[in-house]
Amino acid sequence: MRILYYSGHPGLGLHDPAGYGTHMREMIGAFRALGHVVDPVVLGEVAPGPATSSRIRDRVRSLLPPTARETLKDLALLLHEERAARRLDEAVRRFRPELLYERSTYLHGAGVRVARRRGIRHVLEVNAPYLQEKAQLAASGSALAGCARHVEGRQLRGTDRIVVVSTALRDYLAREHAVARARFVVEPNAVHPAEAAAGAVEAPRLRVRHRLEGRRVVGFAGSIFHWHRVELLVEAFASIAERDPRLTLLLVGDGEALPKLRELAGRSGVAGRVTFTGSVPHRDVFGLIAAMEVAVMAGSNWYGSPVKLFEYGALGRPVVAPDTGPVRDVMVDGEDGLLVQPTSAGLAVAIWKLLADPALAARLASSFQRKVLESHTWAQTASRVLA
């Protein structure tokens, strides 16, 4: 089959190291591995405009009232969407796909429109409740909020199938836009086992490089954003650090919360026992996860399926994770890992439980690893979506 993979978001690049970049690359790679011909049209790869004009634009926006500022941002997205529609239509005429697979984004309905006009089967992948995210992250409301809701509803009702990463997100979208649940396919994120195994070979080298030899490593790997609640992990580690002088906290990745985490480690008296790697090559992420005795995800949002969970699982690490709907979609507490409420005290109890009971840690790690390798690889996800 000829598949055109489309992402119209102006800021999401195919080669970005964050979870969305991994998701796009892996789905495209899995489609190809299944024997399909794939043409990626990812508009986040387009070079940005001149830095000077960008600075001027930002300066002008900063002088406007919050509602006007957000409305202008949305107008810019609508203009981008029109340009994106023309580029997508041209790609469809050139490539002549049998399926248009679209990674959806806020205020962007070009994929459904082009697919319907060209008579092509369309699948819409939705990874977040974009309207809710916009309302939470923006400084104010936008005069185009009603338009955005209309666009999202038109996307969901106009596509042939909707792929979402969690049952929580499915239920929310079905309720908000009166779309039948039968039209949704729930496919959590996944992992590439061979890539993970190849990266794990680097663990001894990375232990030396990051001075982890002889240490008992508790760790987190991923983009460090506020919803990951990594500060709770730092606090939990500080509360148990004195129990074993070999304990080290390893934080792999970069993000907006990193400077505050460094400050917190200093205030908590454990700065010398916390290793911040910053951004590392994707291959090294697997080696660093393999060096962990306990792998932790302190928090997550209510709708997302964290890629890091599946990376932890594929590498056979015992996992402590938040007790959220998307996590429960793929893990059973006490069977595949320890699921806890996102508090530093709860994390500390769970982490120490695994450190103090190697047999329990090994049992949970083995169970989740088996589940991940049997059901949550990118190849399996792509195959189920196309089926």
Describe the structure.
This protein is an alpha/beta fold. It has 2 domains: 2-186, Rossmann fold, CATH 3.40.50; 193-375, Glycogen Phosphorylase B (Rossmann fold, 3-Layer(aba) Sandwich), CATH 3.40.50. Helix content is 51%, strand content 15%. The protein has 17 helices and 12 strands. The protein has helices spanning 19-33, 51-62, 66-95, 110-118, 130-137, 145-158, 167-177, 193-200, 203-209, 230-240, 258-267, 282-290, 307-314, 325-328, 344-356, 358-375, 378-386; strands spanning 2-7, 37-42, 99-103, 121-126, 161-164, 184-186, 216-221, 247-252, 274-278, 294-296, 319-322, 338-340. The strands form 2 sheets. A 6-stranded parallel β-sheet has the order 2-1-3-4-5-6, with helices on both faces. Strands 9-8-7-10-11-12 form a 6-stranded parallel β-sheet, with helices on both faces. Helix 14 (325-328) links the parallel strand 11 (319-322) and strand 12. Helix 3 (66-95) packs parallel to helix 4 (110-118), helix 9 crosses helix 12 and helix 13 packs across helix 16 (358-375). The chain is globular, with a radius of gyration of 22 Å. The model is unreliable at 46-53 (pLDDT under 50).
Keywords:
single chain; Rossmann fold; 2 domains
Order of the strands making up the biggest sheet: 2-1-3-4-5-6
* Structural domain count: 2
Class computed from helices, strands and strand pairing: alpha/beta
Low-confidence parts? 46-53
Number of DSSP strands?
A: 12
Helix content: 40-55%
Major sheet = 6 strands, parallel
End-to-end separation in angstroms reads 12 Å
User: What would you report as the Rg, rounded to the nearest angstrom?
Assistant: 22 Å
Report the total helices.
17
What's the architecture of the largest domain, going by CATH? 3-Layer(aba) Sandwich
Report strand %: 5-15%
Under CATH at level 1, the class of the largest domain stands as Alpha Beta
**Global morphology:** globular
Helix and strand element order: EHEHHEHEHHEHEHHEHEHEHEHEHEHHH
CATH fold description of the largest domain: Rossmann fold
Mean pLDDT: 92
